[in-house]
Amino acid sequence: MALEKRQLPVVDQKVAYKSIRNVGFTRLFQPYKTVTKGQAAIALATGEASDTIVEELSRIEAESIAEKAVASYNSLEAQVEKDVNASFEKELISEKKRVDIMKKLAEEARQELESLRAERKAEHLVIMKERAAVDSELEVLSRFRHEVEEQLQSFKSDKIDISYKKERLGKFHRDAEMENQEIARLQYELEVERKAISMARAWAEGEAKRARERAKTLEATRHRWQRQGINKVVVVNVQEDLNVDVTWLSAGNQLVEESVNRTESLMDKLKRKWPIL
């Protein structure tokens, strides 16, 4: 491949064309001038144009020297070119190796980049899924927080309501305690009144019984005394005694009626406070 690419020496067409043109012009404008080695030998043998021949030989020798110099230069140039080509071939091979290595490294880097890109894409997908899950959880937490706040507000309202009801219940308890005390007092008074009524009734019944017995006795005594002639004074005394007994009996009945009225009043109070009684 390197030999195919190596450039061969290029013939200087301008120099060749110039040499050919010079020979043509010499033959055209100087037809008797010797331009070849044969012509120079004949001229030397005959003795003609010795100066020209000497000059021409000098020129030919100079041209020969120049050609040798050119050949040496061309050989040196060819050697230099060969060395340059060899060095270039080595550098080309080395560069090709480096290029192959770079291509291999670039391919490995590309594959690694593709792998990293695939990994990043997978990680991005995972992150997006996790972000979606986190957003969903945040939404659920936000909704749950809203529900908790609503429940907390409801609990606060219920707490206020319960506190109000507790306060009312405490007031009801205090009122009930006071009413229980009042009921206990009224029941005590009622029991006292019942006992008083019972005692007054027993006393009134006893007094009425004694008054009736005494009235019967006095009436019998009055009849007996009337038959004996004792009328006026006895009647007056008997009537006074009867009036006293009636007065005591009326007082007892009045006391009983007052006790009954007080008892009924207490019962009305108890019924108004406690309708279930």
**Backbone structural class:** mainly alpha
Mean pLDDT: 74
Q: Could you tell me the number of beta strands?
A: 0
In percent, how much strand structure appears in the residues? under 5%
Number of domains: 2
Please tally the helical runs, counting DSSP H or I stretches of 4 or more residues.
5
Identify the quaternary structure here: single chain
| Radius of gyration using CA atoms only | 82 Å
The main pleated sheet reads as:
none
Question: Runs with pLDDT <50, length 5+?
Answer: 1-5, 232-239
- Helix percentage range: over 70%
Give me the strand/helix succession.
Answer: HHHHH
Short description:
The chain has 2 domains: 2-103; 177-273. It is built from 5 helices and no strands. It is an all-alpha fold.
